Amino acid sequence: MNDPRITRLAEVLIDHSCRLQSGEKVLIEAFDLPDAVLVCRLVELATKRGAIPVVSWKNNSVLRSMYQNATPENMQFLGDLEAHRMGQVDAYIGVRGTANSNEFSDVPADKMDLYQRHWWKPTHIEVRVPKTRWVVLRYPTASMAQAANMSTAAFEDFYFDVCTADYAAMAKTMEPLKDRMLATDRIKIISPGTDLEFSIKDIPVVPCAGDCNIPDGEVFTAPVRDSVNGTITFNTQSRYQGTVFDGIHFEFKDGKIIHATCNNEPEKLNAILDSDEGARYIGEWSFGCNNQVKHPMLDTLFDEKIGGSFHFTPGNAYDEADNGNRSQVHWDLVLIQTPEYGGGEIYFDGELIRKDGRFLPDELQGLNEGL
Q: End-to-end alpha-carbon separation of the chain, Å?
């Protein structure tokens, strides 16, 4: 694809998300891209800013072979190499295509666990996320358009519109919600199959407007680790480690997922949650606030931003909103509360704050625009 909008996207990534300065090093990691145009623009722009770009071009078919043949020794070695490289850069841009979103679906769970434990966790959770300015995104492809039930041309228009949004304006609309959340202790959420309560008292709140995800549009915090009680049923499918999970349902007691099931792969679901102790606790709770994204498309970076949604995340907490939970897992699961997806209510300390996906307080009305 040779589209002038790619240059605008590259500018957002280099100047807004990474805030790249002269002399800094940026790792550009590309997976299964159909062409190199975006990577080339990123290299050109980084160089013009006086920065040093480093490119890693990866193929998921090759990675599948590596994961299938994984041993603790080779995953440890590769993880050490990747973590060392990540530790040398100031910024990271990760771009993923979707030649086959199910490429890893037949990799045995124990092999994927070796990758998560020895490669992903030390490189991304322990180095990239807390120590670099990072941003991750998808690249528009025909398979993404198909997942979104759109023509390729229409999807490309949607993709560039939503990915190059006015993130400065978005940030302003999020500030009143941040203030409300910081002043809140108890959260109650009601939806079909969901009756959930937890505390967010004294946990930081982070608005996200193009800094780490493209597209963006969320305000996140984390529940107090042992405060989650009740049940939740997610109405959005989720792909994790190459498997699509449908109808995930959790039951919580004192913060821990004590029962987990889904419509199609309950054994795989529980194997992920048994990866380590922290995988059965929640590391993030976040409002989706990008009203240009209205329907799920089996891509977490888009689905978790859906206006009128929230996501609830088993696994590792981010340092910026830390409840102390640590895990090699960080799995954003989405529940949409707009009327066509069953509706729902969210209460802050007993006050109804959002109903059927729309915020009710006057100071939060800006978050409803375009919903």
A: 31
- Please report, for the chain, the start and end positions of each structural domain, with discontinuous segments joined by +: 4-163, 167-368
As separate numbers, helices (DSSP H) first and strands (DSSP E) second, the chain gives 11, 20
The CA angle 197-185-335, to the nearest 5 degrees, is: 40
Q: Is the peptide bond before 223 cis (omega within 30 degrees of 0)?
A: no
pLDDT tens figures, 332-342: 999 999 999 99
CA distance 197 to 77: 42
Q: What angle do CA 103, 109, 115 make, to 5 degrees?
A: 75
Query: Regarding the domain delimited by 4-163, which CATH topology (the fold level of the hierarchy) does it fall under?
Result: Thermophilic metalloprotease-like (3.40.1830)
Burial class of 168 by CB neighbour count within 10 A (0 to 12, 13 to 18, 19+): exposed
Beta strand 133-138 pairing with 91-96: parallel
Strands 282-288 and 52-58: unpaired
pLDDT given for residue 154 in this prediction? 94
pLDDT digits (tens, 9 = 90+) for 169-180: 999 999 999 999
pTM over cut 0.85: yes
Is residue 337 a contact partner of residue 354, using CB atoms and an 8 Å limit? yes
Sheet with 218-221, edge to edge strand ranges: 206-208, 218-221, 282-288, 309-314, 333-336
